[in-house]
Automatic annotation (TrEMBL), chains A, B, C, D:
Keywords: NAD, Oxidoreductase
Species in which this protein is naturally found: Methylocella silvestris (strain DSM 15510 / CIP 108128 / LMG 27833 / NCIMB 13906 / BL2)
Catalytic residues as annotated in Swiss-Prot or TrEMBL: 171
Molecular function GO terms recorded: NAD binding; NADP binding; oxidoreductase activity
Biological classification of the source: Bacteria, Pseudomonadati, Pseudomonadota, Alphaproteobacteria, Hyphomicrobiales
SUPFAM superfamilies the record matches: 6-phosphogluconate dehydrogenase C-terminal domain-like, NAD(P)-binding Rossmann-fold domains
GO BP annotation list: organic acid catabolic process
Protein name: 6-phosphogluconate dehydrogenase NAD-binding
Amino acid sequence: MHIAFLGLGNMGSAMVRNLVKNGHRVVAWNRSYEPTKPIHALGVAIERTPADACKDADIAITMLADDGAAEAVTLGKDGLIEGLAEGAVHVSMSTISVALSDKFTEAHAARGQLYAAAPVFGRPEAAEAQKLFIAAAGKPDAIAKITPALESVGQKIFVMGEEPAQANLVKLTGNFLITCVIESLAEAFALTAKGGIETQKVFELLTESLFSAPVYKTYGGLILEGKFSPPGFKMPLGQKDNRLLQQAAEKLEVPLPFAAIIRDRFLAARANGDSELDWSAIAKRAAEDAGFEVK
Amino acid sequence: MHIAFLGLGNMGSAMVRNLVKNGHRVVAWNRSYEPTKPIHALGVAIERTPADACKDADIAITMLADDGAAEAVTLGKDGLIEGLAEGAVHVSMSTISVALSDKFTEAHAARGQLYAAAPVFGRPEAAEAQKLFIAAAGKPDAIAKITPALESVGQKIFVMGEEPAQANLVKLTGNFLITCVIESLAEAFALTAKGGIETQKVFELLTESLFSAPVYKTYGGLILEGKFSPPGFKMPLGQKDNRLLQQAAEKLEVPLPFAAIIRDRFLAARANGDSELDWSAIAKRAAEDAGFEVK
Amino acid sequence: MHIAFLGLGNMGSAMVRNLVKNGHRVVAWNRSYEPTKPIHALGVAIERTPADACKDADIAITMLADDGAAEAVTLGKDGLIEGLAEGAVHVSMSTISVALSDKFTEAHAARGQLYAAAPVFGRPEAAEAQKLFIAAAGKPDAIAKITPALESVGQKIFVMGEEPAQANLVKLTGNFLITCVIESLAEAFALTAKGGIETQKVFELLTESLFSAPVYKTYGGLILEGKFSPPGFKMPLGQKDNRLLQQAAEKLEVPLPFAAIIRDRFLAARANGDSELDWSAIAKRAAEDAGFEVK
Amino acid sequence: MHIAFLGLGNMGSAMVRNLVKNGHRVVAWNRSYEPTKPIHALGVAIERTPADACKDADIAITMLADDGAAEAVTLGKDGLIEGLAEGAVHVSMSTISVALSDKFTEAHAARGQLYAAAPVFGRPEAAEAQKLFIAAAGKPDAIAKITPALESVGQKIFVMGEEPAQANLVKLTGNFLITCVIESLAEAFALTAKGGIETQKVFELLTESLFSAPVYKTYGGLILEGKFSPPGFKMPLGQKDNRLLQQAAEKLEVPLPFAAIIRDRFLAARANGDSELDWSAIAKRAAEDAGFEVK
């Protein structure tokens, strides 16, 4: 399969390596030059614009930092939409807003192109190991076409519906649930620590009994050790996803009290100098509220 | 080992069966007569008062509904404390308050008796299958004496510290984390349902990827099916544990914003006629706030 | 003084009447024709575009529904900015976002025009009676020029700073405080009503003792009578101001827990069919959560 | 009228002075000796026990620190209830719990004594100036008998119902509304200060327009100046009233989201060393969350 890949960050580069390993023909583009070098060394052609990269591609995958980048690369000058053939599929795999996904749906339909959203769950290590979980949504023909490519980068694909934006909503919801785990553990650790119990013991009890999911182990471990730097997922990105969640919830008229608390945790974290830390550093607020000295 | 067992509810009866199966000599007491019959049929002697049951016991285990029952059985007329020998251990395995556990610590110390707390995580099925997780706390000599008994009813014992009440605090914290899972899933399902996505699909994606812990499967499944009756753990009991958590948090001066939201969910649930349902029915409030008709 | 007035809604029309009464020469514009008729009858010239209306004006006042309208009328085709003379002042008196106010500041500066923000507190009756309270901000020369006009429509002017957007922030903050009064009264009334106390009595006690401010009387009275229709200030407008407040708070990195609760009240109100009611109908949620039947 | 007055703190002493000034015959009791001296100097007889003080009294007024003191003085050894004549009235004027008020109702009824609750709004200065607002509740005959006494200490009496505890509920509700004013102003000031606006100006605008009630002036002024010491009403007392409110709300099954936030503010204040300050110092948390350095 001939795949155009736009966006060679940590996640994107790992995904390209897996696509190549699985026998796909990949043409790539990245805004800056440096990240293209190791990819080019794999035999991947590097093009000068998104439009050029998409010429003749069956599928164009975007994996970009945020809505701004995704919109510029897709709809901007020399953008993906200019180069993609009729009947080819754009699949957006980064975490973008529900609103932008709806906009892409319309723009591609107007050109006779297909569009699907397939955001991923997993950090760069998971991408490297082809272990991503993928939430996909789009019309059945689009999903059918992109499935081989998705299978080359993830361990499991979950199809959520026919509206691409539904996959984006699910992705934002998943990230919301992660923040709920972070906050609830932060409160739990603050309480038990003040009760004189070693947090390590609480962590072990929880993660070896009812809360054995990876997400409790990963984030519980980070909070336990206070290891918020270097960030695996930076504070402002976590905050952005919370904002996109709340925007989607506002449009759908759904109150989310837990998300509201998380929002304020992000704001307090940023106001108190933690913008460069991992998003799990919102856990510092619960400790500080309980009177613990936090760095 | 000679064990006195006080409290033959669903949980307690299952635990007694496992103690007998594992070769312990058990003498039991229960406030009402009916539940003693199947236990007596196992060859367990039934005594008329807690004090009588504790005569000659190495260990006395209490498994009672709430603080009121635990206090009456332990410190009341013909209570456990009257019958238990010096040097023997009382281990409280039900979910009681931190304050009552502290009171027991003092009362037993004054009599030269030992005291430990060892509340359990798990529903009656888990108790039956000897699969309970146990959070234990107490002086090392007390813990050492009760370990064989605990191993006969649970799959894993986590020792939290030397103050018995620390185990109670951890138990309340664990229940708090469960309620956070319930509320966060309720919000997630309300949001995605309003976005037109089948909840079944969201449930599968979550529980087969990052949120694979038993607690997400159990409670996600209950919410998904709206199966809140018959209750596995009744609304007022869940509410009581939230109250005990908040009381402990108040004493320790620890703000818990998520617990505050859960508190109000319990109150709204009770005010709206859901007192007889499973505690996971607090999930109905998020759906109702989002405009869904809930029964 | 020669004043261009753009936007003849209930508030704007009342303000124009007061400007005329106070001897100002007013030229007006409105998007639709109907509301211009009674104003024209006062001897006010009606122009076909905002730009036309602003020709030769010393001051151009905008009083428009929302950011969209304010931006179109100010910066759009044949907009205010096209017609306003160098050195003349645009004063925006409607409730707009901090971000848009910043945008106007720059756009006018680039044209050598002055800009100030002067949003008002008060319902149409107050506008009619020249009783508005005005929060103004802008450079001293701009404030000096507009003061006579502001004095003709309001009872008191409060200058908040030299950045126009500061007045907008204060206006949003004022509306936020009103919503806090609504929510706190809603909770107070739900609690005391369930305690068997007549709400009328609670209302009297509060408003005749510590809470004697107009805002408690006005909103307490509306909640007490459940008189949410016809709306004095419609639900979606209240919700919009909460959104603008939260956007400003996000930019400034300020957590606002009370505002977060209000946000969810607005969402629940809209999700449950109350979009056409007065914004104080968010009070219905507290009653419903307490188990009261609300229409 | 012959009045027994139990509790000579700041509030109680001021009230006794007004009772004497208005011609009542007062007999007093206080737990400690020192405060009785200036009262004795007014010609007030001081008795050795509450029971002794109540002999021959038409009315016994209690004005005590908390539930513990009120219960001991009323129902304890040599308590009020022992000395009060049949048909005489006990009126509890301090802020006590709804539950304790219910207990008093029963206890007095069993003795053929009357009981009313009449908690007051106002600080010691208001008590001194005979400017207290009084929320009273009780059977009509009890209310009729105590009215002359209440009129001698307050400026206005509001009768809430026939159940004494209703007055206590209203008092707790009033204090809750005050904390809502404190928190909402704290958030408002944090936001506008970060927007570069002088808090003094915001305070003036608010208190001279829509928020002209005494409560905004008093508490807004305290927050503005950061003048939290010496305390007018100490943090732990404010926290206690919040706790009693939440207990009453739990019994009545009424969720109170604003009260939940206030609860956590009190806990964070205490955990961060502010227990000796005025209760309005909970305002420091909003400032700290916004990144302001607070002492």
